[in-house]
Amino acid sequence: MENTTIQMSPVAISERKNLPIRAGATVKVHIKIEEKGKTRLQVFEGLVLAVKGGTSNGAMFTVRKVASGVGMEKIFPLYSPAIDKIEIVKQSEVRRAKIYFIRDKVSREVRRKMRHTKTGVTVPVQEEEVVAEESVTPTVE
Questions:
Q1: Does the 13-117 domain belong in CATH 2.30.30.790?
Q2: Ramachandran angles phi, psi of 45, nearest 5°
Q3: Within 13 Å of residue 16, how many CA atoms lie on the same side as its CB?
Q4: Which residue has the higher pLDDT, 7 or 108?
Q5: Residues in contact with 57: Cβ distance below 8 Å, sequence separation at least 6, in sequence order
């Protein structure tokens, strides 16, 4: 067996340590993805639900986004070499350190919208039926 070394890109630890990433921030995480020997960058943009571990070695942050009506969450290690860069788009004011309640809030809003939509199936009226109805004259007694 041969010893193969995996080439990892260095992480600018001081830059990542000083990132003002908090719950409620909207971030763009640029992830390196390797496919068929080539690497490409994929952007995952969403809302930060939680930051765990502060700025220590094992620090993680959870990002949630909605794609095609489906909520997706990813947990990223802060110092992962697979992350090319982290951009903070905006910072919202939140009163909690972990805003997991957003998951339930979104599902409640969807349920409320579904309640107000009509579930009846509409069948298009054929032209022949309409003509037949118009030719009949109502009789008044």
A1: yes
A2: -110, 130
A3: 23
A4: 108
A5: 79
What SS3 class is residue 5? coil
Q: Which two tokens stand for residue 125?
A: 């009226």
Domain ranges of the chain: 13-117
- The size of the chain, in residues, is 141
Three-state secondary-structure class, residue 26? strand
- DSSP code string of 57-114: TT-EEEEEEEETTEEEEEEEETT-TTEEEEEEEEE---S-S--THHHHHHHHHHHHHH
- For 130, the enclosing helix (H) or strand (E) is helix 127-135
Tokens 């109805």: give the residue: 133
Q: How far apart are the first and last CA of the chain?
A: 101
This prediction's pTM: 0.70
Q: What is the pLDDT of residues 57-113, one digit of tens each?
A: 899 999 999 988 889 999 999 999 999 999 999 999 999 999 999 988 888 888 888
- Compute the distance between CA of residue 26 and CA of residue 97 in angstroms, rounded to an integer: 15
Q: What's the token pair of residue 87?
A: 């951009």
